Amino acid sequence: MNLKNIVNRYLINALEKLNLTVKSFDLFGSKNPKFGDLSTNVALILAKQVGRNPMEIARKIEQAIPIDNSILSEINVTPPGFINFRISPIFYQSVVQQIINKDKHFYTGNIGKGKTANVEFVSANPTGPLSVGHGRQAVIGDTIANILQWHGYDVTREYYYNDGGKQMRILGESVAARYSQELGQSVEWSDDYYQGDYIKDIAKDIVRANSGL
Fold first, then answer.
1. Looking at domain 3-89, what is its CATH homologous superfamily?
2. Among 5, 41, 70, 162, which one has the highest count of C-beta atoms within 10 angstroms of its own C-beta?
3. pLDDT, tens digit, for every residue of 41-79?
């Protein structure tokens, strides 16, 4: 059930009643929610075509649209000639009920059919501890991948380990230096080494794990 298509059909039917024709018009989300949920500039376009007041045309179109309480709760006109539509709570309730009834089969699209998508997410830096932010990234990334799958894409989920190169060498050297310090040895500490307390914790764990050797 496409809401914009429904409202668009209301507008086309109203124009036919009034014997008005227009090649195209816009139907968009209202910039100011106090006026409604959707707005159209159709009256402004028609006003230029026929040389009449856009507010007058907008009101005629408004009067030609029947309010179906299951879809719309209000139609109003605002200067310089926008027609605004407020969606009925009944409509939203019906959509929620459809989602509950159809569960995961509520909506599936095919705009991605035959296409592939790669979603890389989390990819936490292996040289540091995980954070709450990484958990949030996991939820958002997996949700994006699910949405793409619903639209027919062949989705690959990627976690980039990034566990090679200079940063891993420095991590190892940092832990080795802290390990030596835990053993009471003198260490020349490099500014390149990682400074976090977690490095000390890793070194202490290694010392404890090897204390019986």
1. Arginyl tRNA synthetase N-terminal domain (3.30.1360.70)
2. 41
3. 999 999 999 899 999 999 999 999 988 888 999 999 999
